[in-house]
Amino acid sequence: MQTPEQVVQEKNRFINRLIIALVYLAIIWTVHMIKRGLNLDWDQWGVLPRTERGAWGILFMPFLHRDFAHLISNSAPLFVLFLSTLQFYPRIGIRVLLGVQLMGGGLVWAFARPSFHIGASGVVYGLGAFLFFSGWFRRDTKSMAIACIVAFLYGCMVWGVLPTQPDISWEGHLFGAFSGVLMAYLHRNVDRPKPYSWEEEEPAEFPNQTYWEQEKDEYRD
User: If you average pLDDT over every residue of the chain, what do you get?
Assistant: First the structure.
């Protein structure tokens, strides 16, 4: 049971994480509004594989979107997944975001088709993959529950890693997801949730015996 002070502290932490997620999303929207308002062609600053200038897109790719439909489709899942990452893995949340963005963008630059790749969907796939596979790598109750929720809400995203639509950067989705899996594995022992009280308790009798061994001992006398 948390004390009132602990409840207030946790509420303040959540508000701080909420602000971080909102600021990140606001930057993306601000960039797009400036681009549209001034009629600028910033798509050329996306990732253009295996070119010197295209390497800058590793930094800029998540902040550039083709149109409002593209931006809106990425905004909700990006906000939810980034906030979830900050909330459930507070020590490494921002590190995971940066790792997914830089690693995924770098792999797109190295291996993707020679075209401009833009959009935050690679980060979306990376965060989703991180949350899902963290549950499997950690094998604790809370992480597994998070993994199941992510699978339920965003399981259909798995089709986005296949080359089904030529005008969509499926490579960004694929390499973003791969980066998320790698980040989940590398940080599998960091920010482990505290176990519930009932998970820490051991039976008063026969703590190291199986059920059948206990039954055998009970009937032995």
Answer: 88
Going from the C-alpha of 6 to that of each of 85, 142, 168, 216, the distances in angstroms are 21, 20, 46, 46
* Whole-angstrom distance, CA of residue 124 vs CA of residue 64: 14
For residues 192 and 140, is the Cβ–Cβ distance under 8 A? yes
Distances (CA, A) of 213 to 188, 199, 206: 34, 21, 9
pLDDT digits (tens, 9 = 90+) for 72-107: 999 999 999 999 999 999 999 999 999 999 999 999
- Contact of 162 with 127, CB cutoff 8 Å: no
DSSP string computed for 135-195: HHHH--HHHHHHHHHHHHHHGGGGGGGS---TTS-HHHHHHHHHHHHHHHHHTTTSSPPPP
The Cα–Cα gap between 87 and 83 comes to 6
Residue 80, amino acid? V
Which backbone phi and psi does 119 adopt, to 5 degrees?
110, 155
